[in-house]
Design a protein that fits this description.
Shape: elongated
Largest sheet: 6 strands, parallel
Distance between the termini: 5 Å
Structural class: alpha/beta
Strand order of the largest sheet: 5-4-1-6-7-8
Radius of gyration: 19 Å
Helix content: 40-55%
Strand content: 5-15%
Number of helices: 10
Length: 226
C-alpha cells in the first residue's frame, strides 16, 4: 500500500464539543426564560430556516457570523425572550463562536505520527466556511493542507464531489489516501472512490470490517500494510 494522504472528518472524529459549554449555554437561556430549555433537531432546522440559512450554503466567514447572530435572535424570540434581546443574542454568539472544541485523547498523537512520516493531511466536513478557523481554535490547524467544507463545494458527503475537491487540493489520488468518518455511509462513499476508508464509532466494543473505535487503529493499519 502506498500512502500519500490521510483525510479526516472533523466532528466526532478529530474533536467534539465541550459538554460544559453546551450546559452553560442552556443554563443561560433557562435563566432568561425561567423554564427548562430543550431543542430537537427538527426545531433547530426550523430555526435555521427562519434565520435565513441559504439553500446553496454560506459562502464566507462573515456571512456565517451574520447567520449565527440571526439564529440566536430567532432562538430567543422563540423562547419568549423580549428584554435585552439583541444584547442577549450577542452574548450567546460570543460564548459559542469558535469555542468549545475538544480533541479526542489520541488525536494529536495520530496527527503527529502521520506528519512525521510525510503523509499529507486534510479535513472533509459537512459544515460552513469557518472550518479552518475551528481547527485553529482547537489547536490543530497547522497539521492540514486543506479543509474542505460542504457549503463552499456545494455538495455534502457522500456526494463524490466533496471528496474529489479534497483530493484535488492536495494533488493526491484516492487510491493512495485514507479517510476516517464517524458516519458509516460517508466512509463508504469515500471507499467507492478508491480511498481506504474507516468508520470510527467510539460507542461500540470491538472492531469490524473497516470499523474502528480509535484513530490509533489506522496507525496500526498503516504500519501493517505499508
Amino acid at each position: 500500500m502506498i500512502l500519500r494522504a490521510a483525510f479526516f472528518d472533523r466532528d466526532n472524529t478529530l474533536l467534539h464539543m465541550d459538554p460544559a459549554l453546551r450546559a452553560a449555554r442552556t443554563a443561560k437561556i433557562e435563566g432568561w426564560t425561567g423554564r427548562p430549555y430543550h431543542q430537537t433537531y427538527e426545531e433547530m432546522m426550523e430555526l435555521f430556516r427562519r434565520a435565513g440559512y441559504p439553500e446553496e450554503g454560506l459562502k464566507s466567514v462573515q456571512e456565517e457570523i451574520c447567520f449565527w447572530r440571526r439564529y440566536y435572535r430567532e432562538l430567543l424570540e422563540e423562547e419568549g425572550v423580549t428584554d435585552c434581546l439583541e444584547e442577549r443574542a450577542e452574548e450567546l454568539w460570543d460564548m459559542t463562536w469558535l469555542k468549545g472544541y475538544q480533541l479526542f485523547p489520541e488525536t494529536r498523537e495520530v496527527l503527529d505520527w502521520f506528519r512525521s512520516r510525510g503523509v499529507r493531511m486534510g479535513v472533509i466536513s459537512d459544515t460552513s466556511p469557518s472550518l479552518p478557523l475551528t481547527l485553529e481554535a482547537a489547536g490543530i490547524g497547522e497539521y492540514f493542507g486543506c479543509a474542505v467544507c460542504s457549503d463552499l463545494v456545494g455538495a455534502m458527503k457522500p456526494d463524490p464531489a466533496i471528496y474529489r475537491a479534497a483530493l484535488a487540493t492536495l494533488g493526491v489520488p484516492a487510491e493512495e489516501s485514507l479517510y476516517v468518518d464517524d458516519y458509516d455511509v460517508e466512509a463508504a462513499g469515500a471507499r467507492t472512490l478508491g480511498f481506504t476508508a474507516f468508520h470510527i464509532d467510539r460507542s461500540q466494543p470491538g472492531d469490524g470490517a473497516w470499523r474502528i473505535q480509535s484513530l490509533l487503529k489506522i496507525v496500526e493499519f498503516v504500519k501493517k500494510y505499508t
